[in-house]
């Protein structure tokens, strides 16, 4: 628990150094997300495939790019890419566990508050979301998407620790990404004949309690996995 407290203080210090840019990024994120999701809420006009893409980008990837450049992944030397802030903090007497946890907490500030505001406002502003879901269903739907955002989005936060990027690792990454897209396409658009967003609405309607429990469990397991992954990666990388 002490490590988490220190990690929180470290993340807060990082945010204070760029609080104006943080607020600006949150406002821009919300404005773009409102526009995209309210327009795209008309599924019959835009299509559920596009809706899925927007939701995944907004909940899983966009928050990372709200961070100032100095806190994002960038080339350090050779094949090593990492957040320059991590390289700097590695030189200080900070425990590895604290540094690792601070990456997840800092990312959470960029993702969770604006996403929660977005989800609440969408239901209030857009009649399309109210027509598709009751308040209870929408709460479950929101919990599912926040869990998806954490489970996938924390992979971006974990990359702050560092990655070796060369032609081999990039090729493997592309194969993994396109392979994952192909699997999702086959499952949701061929086997289930449904989109990801529409599927999450369905399970939120049919199994609200079970959906929330599974979302919480998947979130906890994801956090444990990324903590383990970052600790292992940090020991493997040469930051000098």
From TrEMBL:
The keyword Signal does not apply. The chain crosses the membrane at residues 20-39, 45-66, 104-126, 138-158, 170-189, 209-227. It comes from Oceanobacillus arenosus. Keywords: Membrane, Transmembrane, Transmembrane helix. The lineage of its organism: Bacteria, Bacillati, Bacillota, Bacilli, Bacillales. This is ABC-2 transporter permease. The keyword Nucleotidyltransferase does not apply.
